[in-house]
Amino acid sequence: MQSDTCNHVLKHDECTGCGACYNICPKDSITMQMDSEGFYYPVVNEEGCLNCGLCLKVCKNERVSTADIRKAYAVNAYDDELRKRSSSGGVFGLISSYILQNGGYVFGAGFDEHFNVRHECIDNEEELDRVLRSKYAQSSIGSVFKEIKQKLLEDSYVLFCGTPCQCKGLCNYLGKSYEKLLIIDFVCHGVPSPGIWQQYLSEFNKKPVKVNFRDKSHGWKGYYINIDFEDGSNYLRNGAEDEYIQGFLWDIYLRPSCYRCDVKDNNRYSDLTIADFWGINEVEADMNDNKGTSLVVTNTVKGENYYKECIEGNSKNISVNLKDAMKRNVSYYEKAHLTDERKCFYKLYYKGKGNKKLAGIVKNFTKPGIFGKIRRKMNYKKAHISF
Ligand SMILES: Cc1cc2nc3c(=O)[nH]c(=O)nc-3n(C[C@H](O)[C@H](O)[C@H](O)COP(=O)(O)OP(=O)(O)OC[C@H]3O[C@@H](n4cnc5c(N)ncnc54)[C@H](O)[C@@H]3O)c2cc1C
Ligand code: SF4
Ligand code: SF4
Fold this sequence. Notes:
The protein is α+β, with helices and mostly antiparallel strands. About 30% of the residues lie in helices and about 20% in strands.
């Protein structure tokens, strides 16, 4: 009889899908399977399982947070081209280039050929664009933690960038710190469902060939989602008008663990935390050029050293007060809001599946009628969106 696997002990909304269990299983007895809401969860194949308990142990490892210092900076990379290709001020690109130039490896989120979001490894600057920019769907980690360990054992420099819970999963999986590993997380609003993302894409009824969630052709602040299709057509829509982005920002289809997220504020497992510096106009008007400004928080001495080595000399930057920096970015410390709207959305979605478009269903929640507006007001004490 089995009792000690992650499947038997973990509650549904406790699992972040970080993939630590998938990576640690010595028998490859765990697969990540999509649930009815479109999120991946580990499923143990009991036939192959040794009942060794490693998956549960790695999940409950609870290594202490790595954060020991917290300095905050506003950063605009000098390289305008890099800033244009990045979500915010280009910080991730600057550090990645440094690691790659030193023969290291960068693990970040990219797209597969069907535009599923998943982590991948790059080892040269020509491939950097693949892992630049935010992808607004939960990324699959696959076997990346195993690959990272292998690279570290070969004494290579490694940069990993992911959600705060993926960073925690990586630390739990490795079980000890490595001098040559740099971990970067970001201020995380929450991750939307990969299944819903694919449903949204499929409703265009044509093959996408390029997706950019952070198109800056109209500036950084009112960013656009930009999709190129095989037939030469294009979809360019302001995030405030696109139903998928709105459903994400209104917390309608985030992973259940995002509503009880425990890796907020200073409970970090990263050396650096990066974010969009919303509100830069109130803090340092000189840097407010609408090309994108990053907020960087150095959590460890290692993070601070990397900041000095890779960012300080390559950007316009200024040291800022962390509290001021977070005024317009409550996701740094506040969890996503779990409301009845999420339940209603999934109910309507299943009811309408096959004959009603996702966008039409999402509109009920993002552009509600009068009763919806009242309900929303009651549900959200503070809007925490950036458009
Ligand atoms: C789901 C999600 C929610 C976010 N919420 C906020 C928020 O509330 N407030 C805020 O200020 N910033 C948020 N960010 C971060 C922000 O969008 C920028 O990524 C950040 O400012 C870094 O910008 P950059 O230009 O330095 O790097 P970028 O060029 O954006 O590169 C960032 C790196 O982030 C990682 N990444 C991208 N997508 C994913 C993903 N789906 N899963 C895991 N890792 C990923 C990749 O490794 C990528 O290489 C969020 C990002 C994501 C993916
Ligand atoms: S108990 Fe061990 S063998 Fe079984 S799924 Fe977990 S890690 Fe794999
Ligand atoms: S909000 Fe928390 S649980 Fe959700 S993806 Fe971000 S770090 Fe993970």
